[in-house]
Amino acid sequence: MRKLLVTGGAGFIGSNFVHHVVAHTDLSVTVLDLLTYAGNRASLAGLPEDRVELVVGDIADAGLVDDLVAAHDAVVHFAAESHNDNSLHDPSPFVRTNLIGTFTILEAARRHGTRLHHVSTDEVYGDLELDDPQRFTEQTPYNPSSPYSSTKAGSDLLVRAWVRSFGLEATISNCSNNYGPRQHVEKFIPRQVTNVLDGVRPRLYGAGQNVRDWIHADDHSAAVLTILERGRAGETYLIGADGEKNNREVVETILTVMGRPADDYDLVKDRPGHDLRYAIDSTKLRTELGWAPRFTDFATGLADTIEWYRANEAWWRPQKSAAEAKYAELGH
Ligand code: NAD
Ligand code: DAU
Q1: Environment class of residue 169 by beta-carbon count within 10 Å: exposed (0-12), middle (13-18) or buried (19+)?
Q2: Would residue 229 show up in a list of annotated catalytic residues for this protein?
Q3: Rounded to two decimals, what is the model's pTM?
Q4: Which of 19, 45, 57, 73 is least buried, going by the fewest C-beta atoms within 10 A?
Q5: Beta carbons of 277 and 129 less than 8 angstroms apart
Q6: Dihedral through CA 107, CA 112, CA 117, CA 122, nearest 10?
Q7: For 146-162, how does the pLDDT look when each residue is reduced to its tens digit (9 = 90+)?
Q8: 51 CA → ligand 2 middle, Å
């Protein structure tokens, strides 16, 4: 394997993956990214031009996708509409990109016999009660709640069908909530960090009791690379780093690290259908493929992330007012 096609490589996790691949392998990478509001050319800045090329285009463009897939040894598919709140406002781009886009990639991979890794989310499994001792495993039934998570669930099922019916050489991973540098300011952690930098109080949905299972984006990238290199075709792997925290705990840590009183936040209108808790059991990935997270101290990883936003205002400032205008419309 020499040439990788990475869809969505100008987004948060996709760009982290491209940086990770450049640092840890000698592969060359073509990024296919539409540069939607969530994509950012600047997230690929500093990468060697002889190893990383950006093609601006749509994963639902069958001709373009066919040409690119034909010219690469493997595809890692990150491109998606990724934000739950947006999917509640207007589901249509989620259906188009997450379902039709994934279908387009699958058909090209089938035609050319190309290895595919499909990047998905733990949200396909729905949510857990706060006191449920179970965590999600590869056997948990699908039960998505939002337009976002249902289109991701649909895309996973398409991949599984292409594996079974057409013998496509594909793997799937379902990961929990990522944090780290270059995440769009619409998402929970960057929104609160940049609010605090702007002197605005963080805003928690509902009672702030919802639990997310946080993992650093670099650990996610390492897991995806491991699955690409050593995963068994047709298999699904769950990715998680035992990072369960409720939203209050996260915001209180942000405020404390940033030198503000820990209770300096507001409770606002809840998200409709808001999933209560996600929790990942990543035993299969750890035991079969030997992956383990490196960022095991959430407070340290979060402090580094806060520092990144403090030092890189030029990266996030152009996104901020449009993101907050959307939230004002939604009442959050
Ligand atoms: P993101 O929104 O930051 O990035 C998505 C990227 O896809 C952007 O660069 C955007 O321009 C691009 N894109 C969107 N539509 C496109 C299209 N039609 N054609 C080509 N490019 C298009 O998302 P993210 O948070 O980096 O998530 C990446 C992937 O990881 C998604 O598939 C998501 O479901 C999955 N995931 C995310 C998380 C998380 O915590 N963020 C956790 C688990 C899984
Ligand atoms: O679990 C993986 C998923 O994690 C990914 O598939 C999604 O792409 C990613 O966006 C993320 O989804 P969430 O909906 O969990 O992430 P978000 O950052 O939107 O919200 C995290 C939690 O914080 C959630 O309980 C909602 C809450 N929240 C969010 C925002 C933006 C707030 O309380 N206040 C806010 O302002």
Answers
A1: middle
A2: no
A3: 0.99
A4: 45
A5: yes
A6: 10
A7: 999 999 999 999 999 99
A8: 33
AA identity, residue 73: D
Give the integer Cα–Cα distance in Å for 287 and 277: 25
Q: What sections of the chain are H helices per DSSP?
A: 12-24, 62-70, 84-89, 92-94, 102-112, 147-166, 188-197, 217-230, 247-257, 283-289, 298-311, 313-330
Q: Is there a contact between 117 and 173 (Cβ–Cβ < 8 Å)?
A: yes
What does residue 7 show for φ and ψ, rounded to 5 degrees? Answer: -85, 145
Residue of minimum CA distance from atom 14 in ligand 1: 80
CA gyration radius, the chain: 19
How many Cα atoms within 13 Å fall on the side-chain side of residue 40? Answer: 20
Q: Whose CA is nearest to atom 21 of ligand 2?
A: 188
Pocket test for ligand 1, best of 12, 151, 179 (most atoms within 8 A of CB): 12
**Structure tokens, 299:** 């407070």
**For residue 166, what are its two tokens?**
């057409």
| Per-residue pLDDT reduced to its tens digit, 91-132 | 999 999 999 999 999 999 999 999 999 999 999 999 999 999
Q: Tell me the C-alpha distance between 153 and 285, whole Å.
A: 20
- In the residue annotation, 123 being an active-site residue is answered as yes
Catalytic, out of 85, 125, 148, 278? 148
In the structure encoding, which two tokens stand for residue 172, read together? 């799937």
Instruction: Report the pLDDT value the prediction gives residue 176, as an integer from 0 to 100.
Output: 98
What CA–CA distance (Å, rounded) separates 255 from 139? Answer: 38
**Which amino acid, one-letter code, is at 164?**
R
